[in-house]
Amino acid sequence: xxxxxxxxxxxxxxxxxxxxxxxxxxxxxxxxxxxxxxxxxxxxxxxxxxxxxxxxxxxxxxxxxxxxxxxxxxxxxxxxxxxxxxxxxxxxxxxxxxxxxxxxxxxxxxxxxxxxxxxxxxxxxxxxxxxxxxxxxxxxxxxxxxxxxxxxxxxxxxxxxxxxxxxxxxxxxxxxxxxxxxxxxxxxxxxxxxxxxxxxxxxxxxxxxxxxxxxxxxxxxxxxxxxxxxxxxxxxxxxxxxxxxxxxxxxxxxxxxxxxxxxxxxxxxxxxxxxxxxxxxxxxxxxxxxxxxxxxxxxxxxxxxxxxxxxxxxxxxxxxxxxxxxxxxxxxxxxxxxxxxxxxxxxxxxxxxxxxxxxxxxxxxxxxxxxxxxxxxxxxxxxxxxxxxxxxxxxxxxxxxxxxxxxxxxxxxxxxxxxxxxxxxxxxxxxxxxxxxxxxxxxxxxxxxxxxxxxxxxxxxxxxxxxxxxxxxxxxxxxxxxxxxxxxxxxxxxxxxxxxxxxxxxxxxxxxxxxxxxxxxxxxxxxxxxxxxxxxxxxxxxxxxxxxxxxxxxxxxxxxxxxxxxxxxxxxxxxxxxxxxxxxxxxxxxxxxxxxxxxxxxxxxxxxxxxxxxxxxxxxxxxxxxxxxxxxxxxxxxxxxxxxxxxxxxxxxxxxxxxxxxxxxxxxxxxxxxxxxxxxxxxxxxxxxxxxxxxxxxxxxxxxxxxxxxxxxxxxxxxxxxxxxxxxxxxxxxxxxxxxxxxxxxxxxxxxxxxxxxxxxxxxxxxxxxxxxxxxxxxxxxxxxxxxxxxxxxxxxxxxxxxxxxxxxxxxxxxxxxxxxxxxxxxxxxxxxxxxxxxxxxxxxxxxxxxxx
Length: 853
Fold this sequence. Notes:
853 residues, alpha+beta
């Protein structure tokens, strides 16, 4: 919301500059997001002038040479009128005009100088509205005679005394619970309270609607009915005759423009001005275009259409409120008026409607139609019925003054029984207990009184009556304490820690696992990224997921910011690929990144009919490698990312937690066939660990996640290099490897306390063997068989070479194995190891293996 400072100062004008006002408002909860400037940067050299003559320029058909009285000085002290060359078509003798003298600085920063135009020296500029940023104004100059003024303006009068030509504008962030601050007067009340009790404190001016030039009672000739009073808590209307529709006064245009509104005509501008000042939206109907002189408020029928002021035909649903006349729908309640009854230049009779609409109903209509307006943004936050007649009184005065209108006797006022004002007890001791500091009872009274809360002394504090405009916001004693705290100064409250009550400051096991996993990735040189929790439905197709895949069980947002962010991400892979694409596109082909974040899937039990109502979410960790694994050096080309590089990275993570894990061949649509695997972990033989898993039993397995190289088609969809291509600055044959695991499941299988054994004091006995095996026997199976056959004597086994070729035969390969044997109490000999070696050879034979050499 934009609040012009000069408009704000009309109701509360503390002796503070704009930055001090910003600080006070922000520190009391009305945050100032930015400070803008509207109009000229400096008001010097802008004055009122009177055109004494306007002669045709001798060398230009569209220019006139004007003699302008600037109050006895043309800037050089000679006392003669100034000569100004003007190209406006409406300049004429006798006009009172706005003039910028030489030295004036225009809104765009241009400094005016005497200039020669077609041979005639011009000593200034006669100004148009647009040149002062107070409206569009068309092609003509601003004629001050057309203003509503109490006395004739004298030439030389500073223009700032006549028009708001220069002001700072506060851009405010108004929280949804404070619709009372969606009007200038409401912000003025906040500023008054924020400075009250300080040397800068000043009174709050009287409410601008305190005098009502309209009247109550029946209004003849117009009929209104409300069919859904639960959605329209109050509907008021007045009729104005002898209305002259035309441009608004320049002062009104200036304020609207500074507040971010576009001036249209005086009637529409009055409704916007009254809304900006009071916070209550209004709408004007051309009464002669209201069929039957009758309005009905009702819910729309499904599929019913209304043509709105913007010329669009909008289709409504059965939950949308509309206003109709005898010929059908004429406007969408609380959102936008209809084209059929809009005010036009020929309008002479106006029906002014001010109503209170239910916030959830307006929010639904706004969301369903994709239409937001200044009115809807206020109604959806919850306005109060008492505001209707405030806005009517304000608009009535403006219609009489700016349109020459005559208000007819009576006001239509259809209202439900208003909620009574709430009275709350504010206890002095409770304030001190909550804030941790004593605030005197008199100071509490001052603060609440400044905020329009009536209060009287009570035995243990104050009985406080909540004003109507704060009815939905202040409902409990703690809300009153918040009001006292924010105005008295949250920055003045002492910094204290909450009572610990025996709590120990330590991380849970799951938190330690999460931090340890992230540390492991950073320790291996990966950079952490943070992706959006929202993503687009198209991600599922880009990942080649079939219709029945578990990752398609997504959580859809009911009110997404855009279609590109309409579902919650079911996997981290999308954001990892997005980050890799971003880097590769900027000549960064070597990518090593990870992300630790939450992923979401619709509950299997609630995903019927494609409308999930629940969600399963867990914290996952994913990593992506692409390009070189190390910087280039004179040693030779570095290794490139592939399946085994990702597996080594995964091993560094899981081994940190002493987890019994393995990988099993498995397929995912987004991973390369034959280069993908499932990551499996085994619950240890520890009852306390097994109990943490719902289906857990000692020795049971849990699938932690997946591991593999990205499918070439998926890599291409993200513009990453893949086998057979050279994209994004990478090399032909580049691979992208990824893994992702569920950190919640990792916390289940990871022991809370790691047991360490001492390093052996005796040396190991190493023996190397080479064995040929069928190529369809995975190395994982070989290692398992060796560890089982070797028992406790086999301390370590490692594959250090793989060979395929004619020497081992087709369909076979040779594995070179390093076997390390150790005993806890003695140094082993070959004779000690011989029986173990025989068992190992036998185990290899069961796999189809034969020793070489």
